[in-house]
Structure formats: structure tokens, C-alpha cells
Amino acid sequence: MHKFPPFVLLSIAMSAQFMSGQSTTLRVIAFGAHPDDCDIRAAGTAAKFAAMGHAVKFVSVTNGDAGHQTEGGGALAKRRRAEAMESGRRLGVEYEVLDNHDGELLPSLDVRHQVIRRIRQWNADIVLAPRPNDYHPDHRYTGVLVQDAAYMVVVPNVAPDTPPLRKNPVFLYFEDQFQKPAPFRADVAVSIDETFAKKIDALDAHVSQFYEWLPWVDGRLDEVPKDVAERKKWLAGTRSRPVSRAVRSALEKWYGPEKAAKVVHAEAFEVCEYGRRPSDEDLRKLFPMLR
Fold first, then answer.
1. For a disulfide at 28, which of 100, 126, 211, 252, Cβ 3.0-4.6 Å?
2. How many CB atoms lie within 10 A of CB 215?
3. One digit per residue, pLDDT tens: the chain, 291 residues?
């Protein structure tokens, strides 16, 4: 009789339980280039997963040490890590910030192994990441790194210090507005009306970004209110955007036309063909808030 190590038995049991449709804890890991990227693209959905008792982790592939107009280096990296930890606390998710320099990320073998290890250690069912076409090279390369990890997470001889997964997760991309070489396709859309306030609460934790750096880049720094409560209302206003036609169509698919028509805030995701290929039934199991 074959003897399997504990991590293999756990993975086999979790996979069998998931495929049988029994209730189980889903494990979701999201990768962003910087310590606020996952929050922007998936905080509302993450809050829903967490509220349902599922395990969610955000990973920033860089430490954010370049993203500010007056601060930088180690001091900024420390500040941004603290902001990420606070955001994670508010959302009820785990947050990890890797120590790679902001603005200098490359899809190297070393960083690919960092990504592979995190996916394996989390025993992920779902992996979220940006698409590899974006205005920011760190965003693009984060997408490439996660794509490059999509098959390698099951290969034992790659990053052998961390046990491989026994099943490939489903990889999905965050929504974006870029059109070339191909526009974003909304395969899954999640209404976040119930968690939009919690998403704003998470973004509010990143003070250095949403009240300092990003308004400075956009030439709107003078618009940021000084009062803490007022600036949070201002932030909600800047982050409230109309649901696109493509996302509205996906909402109709998953919620039905009547409910979809009432959705004000949504987050959408595109299935990456490099991971496990899910059916619609699989996606309903992976996103139980759609049932």
C-alpha cells in the first residue's frame, strides 16, 4: 500500500470534497504588483468570500517603495506594508508584501518561484491577478509571473522546497479597461453592493496612495478633504464607476436580468486558459455568492 505525505492526502481530500459538491472552505489568493492593487480590483469580492468563512490572501509582489511624490525607499516600504496589514484587517483577509522593488519588477525565475511558493503554501482553489497588458510594467509583469506559475505549481521539480499542488487552481484575471491586444472578457461578475463600503474602508487604509500619491499624479491633490470622514466620502465618489456593458451582461448571466439591473457596484474576472478550465457549474462552486 502506498504511503502519501500529509500534504498530498490533504490536497486529495479537499479536491474530492470540492468535486463532490460538499461544503468546504475555498482558498483564494490574489496577486497585485503594489500594496493597494488587489484592494482596487477585488476587495469587494474578497470581503464576500471572507464573510462566508472562506480563506483569502492578498499578495503584493513589490513593496511599493517608489509610489510617492515626497517619500521613498525603506521608509515608504515600511509605511505601505503597515497600510496593507491594516487593509487586510479591515477586510478579514491575510495580506503579504514581498520585498521586491517598486518600478523594477521583472518576470525573473527567482520571482516566479516566489509566486509559485505562495500559491502552493495557500493550497489555492482560485488565483487572481492582473492581465499582462497594462500601462504599468509592474502590473504587466505580475500578470506574466502568475501566468508562468499556472502550470508550474503542479510540477514537483520546480521550486522543490515547497510541495506541489495535486490539482491546478482556476486562474482568473482582474477587470481592466485596456483594449489591445484584446479587451477584457467578463466571465464572472460579482455584485459588491453589500460590500462596497467595506471596499472603500480597505482603500482608505492606504493613506499614502489614495489621499497623497494618486491625487498628486492626477493633479487633484487640492481636492482631497482634510477631514477624515469627508475624505472617505470623497474616496467613495472617486471609486464609484458605472458598470460596463460587458460586466452588466455577465451579471445578467449569473444573477438573472431583474437582479442584475439593480446592481450599482460590481467586480468582474476573466478565466485564464492556462490554469484549470472550469465549467459554469465549477464557477458557481468557486464563487458561492453567485448561487
1. 126
2. 19
3. 444 444 444 444 444 444 434 459 999 999 999 999 999 999 999 999 999 999 999 999 999 999 999 999 999 999 999 999 999 999 999 999 999 999 999 999 999 999 999 999 999 999 999 999 999 999 999 999 999 999 999 999 999 999 999 999 999 999 999 999 999 999 999 999 999 999 999 999 999 999 999 999 999 999 999 999 999 999 999 999 999 999 999 999 999 999 999 999 999 999 999 999 999 999 999 999 998
**Distance (Å, whole) CA 185 – CA 182:** 9
52 contact partners, CB below 8 Å, separation of at least 6: 288, 289
Residue 95: count other Cβ atoms within 10 Å of its Cβ: 24
CB crowding 162-175: b at 16 or more within 10 Å, else e: bbbbbbbbbbbbbb
Q: What is the CATH number of the domain that holds 115?
A: 3.40.50.10320
Q: Is residue 222 part of a domain?
A: no
**Range of 140's domain?**
27-189+267-290
Establish if 207 belongs to a structural domain. no
The total number of structural domains in the chain stands at 1
Asked if omega into 181 is within 30° of 0 (cis), the reply is yes
In a domain, 20, yes or no: no
CA distance 198 to 195: 5
Which of 81, 70, 75 has the alpha carbon at shortest distance from 36? 81
For CA atoms 25, 31, 36, 40, give the dihedral sign: negative
How many Å apart are CA 245 and CA 188, to the nearest integer?
A: 13
The sign of the torsion formed by the CA atoms of 101, 107, 109, 112 equals positive
Question: CA-CA distances (angstroms) from residue 112 to 40, 58, 156?
Answer: 23, 16, 15
pTM over 0.85: yes
